[in-house]
Design brief:
The chain has 6 helices and 5 strands, in the order βαβαβαβαβαα. It has 148 residues and is of the alpha/beta class. It has a single domain, classed as Sugar-phosphate isomerase, RpiB/LacA/LacB (Ribose 5-phosphate Isomerase B, Chain: A). A 5-stranded parallel sheet has the order 2-1-3-5-4, sandwiched between helices. Helix 4 links the parallel strand 4 and strand 5. The longest helix has 16 residues. The chain binds D-ribose (RB5). The site of D-ribose (RB5) has 8 residues, from helix 3.
């Protein structure tokens, strides 16, 4: 499975750690940057990861900034992208099971490395449950169609 990943300067170090974890678990990682801790702008990287997921070049995406908020706001502007900001494993698991989130957003200034990796692990190991949740996700998709 291919995972698109991106961060701004605040998320850079955590992105590198998460990338190592993903590779160790045999995921294919497409890294859209940033490539250093030099100050940059999170929407640039959120856009690249969101487009990769929207186009099906990656099945899922992970975005990291200081809080995860800016990444989440930006990614959710893209049709077909459902980004979830998660601060624990429960939110991560349920964002897949109930919301079918295809991008996970994390805050490097909110989470320690071990918790962040545990959240990624929980997210990747959970699947959409469908059923009543499908009806709700379909309502979101219908709104998306009506708005665009
Ligand atoms: C950068 O200082 C910070 O604003 C950014 O990483 C992020 O937290 C935005 O949502």
């Amino acid at each position: 499975m291919k995972i698109a990943i991106g961060s701004d300067h605040a998320g850079y170090l955590l992105k590198e750690k998460i990338k190592e974890f993903l590779i160790s678990r045999s995921y294919q990682v497409i890294d859209f940057g940033t490539t250093s801790a030099e100050s940059t702008d999170y929407p640039i990287f959120a856009r690249e990861v969101a487009l990769a997921v929207q186009r099906g070049e990656a099945q899922q995406g992970i975005l990291i900034c200081g809080t995860g908020i800016g990444m989440c706001i930006t990614a959710n502007k893209f049709k077909g992208v459902y980004a979830a900001l998660c601060t624990d494993e429960y939110m991560a698991r349920v964002s897949r099971q109930h919301n079918n989130a295809n991008i996970l957003c994390l805050g490097s200034r909110v989470l320690g490395e071990a918790l962040a990796i545990s959240i990624v692990d929980a997210w990747l190991n959970a699947d959409f449950e469908g059923g009543r949740h499908e009806r709700r996700v379909d309502l979101i998709k219908k709104m998306e169609e009506d708005m665009c």
